[in-house]
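S.,

Sequence below, as promised.
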Amino acid sequence: MTQQITNIRPRSGPYQKNAKRSDSGTLKAADVPLQEASRDIWNTKYRLRGKDGRVIDKTIDDTYQRVARALADVEIGAEKREQWYEKFLFALRVGAIPAGRIVSNAGALEHKPATSTINCTVSGIVRDSMDDILRKVHEAGLTLKAGCGIGYEFSTLRPKGAFVAGAGAHTSGPLSFMDIYDKMCFTVSSAGGRRGAQMATFDVGHPDVMNFIRVKREDGRLRQFNLSLLITRDFMAAVHGDLEWQLAFPVTEAEIRAEDLDPEDPTEIVWRDWPVTSHYFVNADGKVACKVYKTLRARRVWDAIMTSTYDFAEPGFILVDKINEMNNNWFCEDIRATNPCVTADTWIRTEHGARQVSALIGKSFVAMVDGKNYPSGSEGFFRTATKPVVCLQTTEGYRLRLTRDHRVRRVTRFERYDTETEWCEAGELRSGDRVLLNDHRACTAWKGEYNAEQGYLMGLLVGDGTLKTDKAVLSVWKPAAVANGGDASLPNGVLAVMAEALSAASGLPHRSDFTGWQEIPGRNEYRLATAAIRQLAFDLGMRPGDKSITPVMERASSEFTRGFLRGLFDADGSVQGDQRKGVSVRLAQSNLSRLQAVQRMLLRLGIASRIYRDRRPAGTKILPDGRGAQREYAIKAQHELVISGENLLQFRNLIGFADT
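The prediction came back faster than expected:
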């Protein structure tokens, strides 16, 4: 599925939900009720407990006070400490969120003295010796135990098959040593309930780079790692020029003599910048002599990277020259490892349905990409930093908030039976570019809460119902031709909707006087009113005056999703066109965000659609008044979602209409 971009624009700040202010006029985090997922994460990850399991932080405000006190205690003098305590506490109460290790461990020294307040760290250089490899394992184990994540570069280790003079044998290569780190991370249970999080980076010019690219194709291998390649400008120039690329590793002067290598012969020795120079043969420019182990076409390596990234979501892609240019500490350090980030409100399709990143922080999960399973690491997502974001929007109406450097798949060639893509940063996209959407047609079922019958009732309620404090009311109407003609009978389509709704409602708990559908005299209307449907709507996050499609509804089972969409299209949808001009299914709404949620739900079932904004402008219109007469009503601008082409078959098979 390809989508054309119509707009990509910066957002001035993060998305803000509506929040109340306290009586004093100060906005407090406590005024915004915590979601169930947020409360669960606080309780399991950040709430302080004693060694015996006794709860120390009785409330989340206790956590704020603990953290604020710990941050302020470094100041000199009681007056200054109290001043900064009040400032930190104010910031926390109005919504500031520090890194996870700060929330978990600041002020907790008495209860967990061996923990850290640092989220992410990078290991020192792993030098090419058994002594240093094992020393760094030891250091990493203690780092993970303290609750920190850690990154390493492993391309400083000599390639598989290289001779180790001291051992008189050939080395097993860096990937085998990564297995040791992987098992260590799996074994060490990090403090505060946080499992270990590791990042491994690898130079694109290392002789074992092809093995690194493909390593996660082996079932269960290196699952405690995120992997990223260090991509250099020289490599990208070789890709663009379709040149050969030397895979090489540093050598000592003694090794050059022993192997009779010619430093002036580029087929034997290439000179490169390397994070380690000690013991290696270095020229006057500070570059290290690297023995060429093999030579490949640069595009072959590139294709392997792109294939693996597409099929297995790894390795990542670090432009190492660029990040060092942008590093404020360029004069004293060389960055060789890092950690990746995405925005917290991003929707992720998992094996259990749609979830937002904020609900996957600290939890392992299985992502679904084009119908295939891709397990995350044991830590899942973890909070790192705040960055500006841009808003990507397609002609069809799909929207995504993401960082400018987040990669997306841009379509380079699109034909009926063949599509070619390339990865690019979101900031590189231009109006008219096409991007590729996930195709979920091969996986349209997932388990979860709520069933199809409950979904159908909610679809009718959102589409043409009324939610009150004491009950919910579903309505169906006689078509105008029937009402004006005096025909007392209802069309079969309306009867089918009424029958399906009554059957679904019968599965809910009711009072003994529940009578089902009731005709409303003089209004050409039938109503089904019950407190049971109201309670279901409340459980799903709806409230009187706000029939939004809530996150709880988007997270529900595939059966609920299909039932909901069927009810909504029965209430507000239509089939238009003919075989000659083309047939389409349409859904008109004045609430644009509701249509966008419907579009997301459809796409999770493999059904692509298009939203036309302001299809009908705001104004006034003569409409039936429900009493057999007509009157002028003010109407809002109407937006329209359209399903057409091959997507109609998927819609018919998975959703369809009761009103036929």
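Confidence is low (pLDDT under 50) at residues 6-24, 481-486.

Coffee later?
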